[in-house]
Amino acid sequence: MPTSIVDVAKLAKVSISTVSRVINRSELVNQQTRARVESAITQLGYQPNAFARGLMLRRSDIVGLVLPDLHGEFYSEIIRGANIQARHLGYNLVVSSARDGDDSHSLLRAIQQRALLDGVAVMVSELTDRIAEVLAGFRLPYVVLDGEIDGTPHDSVVIDQRHGAVALMRHLVGPAGAKRIIFVGGLATNVDTIARLDAYRQVLAESGLPQAASDVYHLDYQYETAYRLAREHVRAWASAGCCVFAANDEMAAGIVAAASEAGLNVPRDLAVAGFDDTRVARMTRPPLTTVRVPMAKMGAQAMELLCHRIADPQRPRTQISLQPELVVRESCGTALRRAAGQPAHA
Amino acid sequence: MPTSIVDVAKLAKVSISTVSRVINRSELVNQQTRARVESAITQLGYQPNAFARGLMLRRSDIVGLVLPDLHGEFYSEIIRGANIQARHLGYNLVVSSARDGDDSHSLLRAIQQRALLDGVAVMVSELTDRIAEVLAGFRLPYVVLDGEIDGTPHDSVVIDQRHGAVALMRHLVGPAGAKRIIFVGGLATNVDTIARLDAYRQVLAESGLPQAASDVYHLDYQYETAYRLAREHVRAWASAGCCVFAANDEMAAGIVAAASEAGLNVPRDLAVAGFDDTRVARMTRPPLTTVRVPMAKMGAQAMELLCHRIADPQRPRTQISLQPELVVRESCGTALRRAAGQPAHA
DNA sequence: CAGTTCTTTGACATCGCTTTCAGTCCAGCA
DNA sequence: TGCTGGACTGAAAGCGATGTCAAAGAACTG
């Protein structure tokens, strides 16, 4: 029913080859013929069939971005960065997210079967064997976001979590003068949590601070959960001179809220640090000291890498590492010296 | 290079028709032949070419969801609902968002040109002529989300914004006992803002409260902006016995923060209501009285409608209206009687 | 046993496009 | 006048699937 290239050809009284040439801006078409064809195209409102085109060209100019989930500014920033870069490179971007739970592997499988995409950037939160397995046999060009997956080396762009977390921890033990630090993370299998916890332990070790297994909590990255946890412990933490290092801003915000409600002053009585520098970090009172993760940039870099891979499937795998940045706000005190008993900020 | 149906046919020593039959689970294939073909398929790791398939079938089983932006829980909830429903109906969902600004129209145009999708659900925040124009000439089945676009009637699922806003306003003038209400909205062209402002005016009128043009502010739905605005006015508002109706939770949170910092007690000194019931509503202290918008449901309904449209392009246009729900928390007082000078909550 | 039906299979047209490859036409040149 | 080459154009061969139709053989009927 929709108009095809032959309709255009008939109307313009040329062959389909010529129409095709006009569409693909080939230079070998006479000026007048071209005009005739173009007018026929607009007259019929013709648009090439993408399936037929893709069948010949073996590409769709569409790339995908697969995320474990879409909740949170974190992801939308990645998408934004990726989107802009993808268009810049001549691709259209589509986003898909695994439903609840870990069925990213089935989503990836579906994508691979459909194979209408030229390539895909995938981000996984939990590294399951099934995902690794799917990826290992993947036919489509792909890059991995923020997940160092061992075994097969992938094209990937990762955030140097350790670096950022170490900087934050050093800020805590240094300027903020923590005597003991509580770590509140996500699931123990979560790749981000693993990296941040690692840095936590390293800095504790290097600065001779106590390491107790009971100082490490594994929650779910949610405000509410952290809030409830903190409500129970916050007074104890404060009187023990603790700082809290939450693995994301939302949990940090929950902890700050619990502390405030318990009549504690943040940061004077309890310093709390977050991670990610999402919008909540500025919405919390006091604003959170946190680590800014270059999310938009990560998305953009992923697209760039992906396009290179698409262009040359044989090129060697590349790893890009992005540096996060410590953002000092007020939730851990500004140049606070707790030992001296000074107030947090004037 | 990748294996095609002929490779499978050769290996299994059958014709391509038979392979096709096996793939499409046609019943007319002999048990043994089927087994042979299936083994050939797995042996070669064969996967049908989606372009060729789409070319014949004229469908891809993929539907799209176009959003004006992806920031905010608002959108991710829609996506979640749409995603689940789409899969349920046998479709895969891809999401795309307009970049910054209002180039949804160009995105739509691109989608229409590619036309690899079976249909698309579009949500627009600002109703520009260009978008209406693109939609008017749209070839793909589509539904419109949360935007009553006049002129051509569309399949659409809308939130009955007025209804929710009226309920909230009545709560403000009734139980919360507001004498004067400040409206803080988004841009004056924003469809949501228009509906909410409308309800605001209606309830003011019906309850004989003062309507001053200077009580209406048009911001940008951001926390920061609302915070800055509130910092200037909050004391004046409080002493005038105002309530604030913010058109989304984030702005409401900013206003609450400004009020708290000015030493005001919310809700005793100033009641603040939000809209949307996003996560921030519960993260604010005190938690926000707001209006819950069934976002996930909206996404799901959109998918359902879209699938019906795809199945039957001739069916009459349908309008689905979803009812939002008033959520009373503490930011406007619980059964507060300001006239009696009672404290907000014990 | 001939005729009919059912089951199973393969040949081939088709979808709408891109891309050789082989003209056709005409100008330029010997 | 005949030849060469350049500028355009068209015919036709795929791309990789689906689906139609006919044929081959088995099974069933009278």
Percentage of helical residues of chain A?
A: 40-55%
CATH class of the largest domain in chain A: Alpha Beta
Biggest β-sheet: strands ordered side by side in the sheet of chain A:
2-1-3-4-5-11
Which pair has the most extensive contact? Answer: A-B, 55 and 55 residues
Number of helices of chain A: 13
C-alpha end-to-end distance of chain A: 74 Å
CATH superfamily of the largest domain in chain A: Response regulator
Task: Note the main sheet of chain A.
Answer: 6 strands, parallel
- What is the total tally of β strands of chain A? 12
What structural class do the secondary elements of chain A suggest? alpha/beta
Summarize this structure briefly.
Two copies of one chain form a homodimer. Helix content of chain A is 45%, strand content 15%.
Task: Give a written overview of the molecule.
Two copies of one chain form a homodimer. Chain A is of the alpha/beta class. Chain A folds into three domains: 5-48, lambda repressor-like DNA-binding domains (434 Repressor (Amino-terminal Domain)); 62-159 and 295-321, Rossmann fold, CATH 3.40.50.2300; 161-293, Response regulator (Rossmann fold). Chain A is 45% helix and 15% strand. The first copy, chain A, contains 13 helices and twelve strands. In chain A, the strands form three sheets. Chain A has a six-stranded parallel β-sheet, with helices on both faces. In chain A, strand 8, helix 11 (249-261) and strand 9 (271-273) form a beta-alpha-beta unit. In chain A, helix 1 (5-12) packs across helix 3, helix 5 (73-88) runs parallel beside helix 13 (295-311) and helix 6 (104-114) runs parallel beside helix 7. The radius of gyration of chain A is 26 Å and the shape is elongated. In chain A, 48% of the residues are buried. Mean pLDDT of chain A is 86; it is low at 335-346. The interface between A and B is large, with 55 and 55 residues. Chain B binds a DNA duplex (30 and 30 nucleotides) through helix 2 and helix 4.
